[in-house]
Amino acid sequence: MSISVDVLFQVTYGLYIVTAESEGKINGCLINTLCQVNSEPPTFQVILNKLNLTHEYIAKSGRFGVSILDQNVPFEFLGRFGFRSGRQTEKIDHTITLLRSPEGVPIVGNYALSYLSCEVFKTVDVDTHTLFIGKLLSAEPLSSGIPLTYTYYREVKKGKTARNAPTYVSLEKTPSTFQEASMAKYMCNVCGYVYDPALGDPDSGVAAGTPFESLPDTWVCPVCGVGKDQFSKM
Ligand SMILES: Cc1cc2nc3c(=O)[nH]c(=O)nc-3n(C[C@H](O)[C@H](O)[C@H](O)COP(=O)(O)O)c2cc1C
Description:
Helices cover 13% and strands 32% of the residues. It has helices spanning 5-8, 53-61, 75-82, 150-155, 176-179; strands spanning 16-22, 25-31, 35-39, 42-49, 63-69, 98-100, 106-108, 112-126, 129-141, 186-188, 194-195, 231-233. A seven-stranded antiparallel beta sheet has the order 2-1-5-8-9-4-3. A hairpin with a 5-residue loop joins strand 10 (186-188) and strand 11. The two termini are 31 Å apart. The structure holds flavin mononucleotide.
């Protein structure tokens, strides 16, 4: 059997925040596994790792919301939902614009172009993950912009995939193009974000051309928030 991970990286996805509420608590996480599976009635799937708190909330409540993200969403926001669990941190805090669908399903409004709200009618056990299939209850636009794709996240934003994502590929298996690293690049040991001095970190005010060694000690990984000491030279 031959499986080229380069082929797996050519499969295209969007990136979304999926949300759910259970016993008065709301949580959400970043996913790439939203897919429309039927049109009559409109039906959508999301695939969640069983370890994720959002999985627990969807399984308990039988409902989920989805925010379709704007391409211009900052890295910090993606890191909050894609690399941190609601088990350790309060993700839905005062910085989050929490909306409700007409059915009362919670929706994260920040950087959302539109939302979907779904009611689960079928689940499929896929070992470490569960595929939740939901009937669409409502869907409305919220703002205008270009939807964020996985390709844009990886190739333009230089983002990585979290370990709990179904599409996670361990670093040893990443394709050759992603292993081509100059000596000056540094990788975050926690989330895999690569600091490239040629690009800098404009979202954090670090100009292109700034060597890693010159970053201030207060600088943190724009994806997962850990300090410089958690980076390794590539
Ligand atoms: C680019 C990207 C895509 C992801 N896609 C998924 C996904 O489709 N399903 C999933 O369960 N987790 C996915 N994750 C991982 C979750 O977002 C991550 O484990 C999150 O911390 C879970 O938070 P929670 O425990 O609060 O639910 C993805 C992460 C990233 C960075």
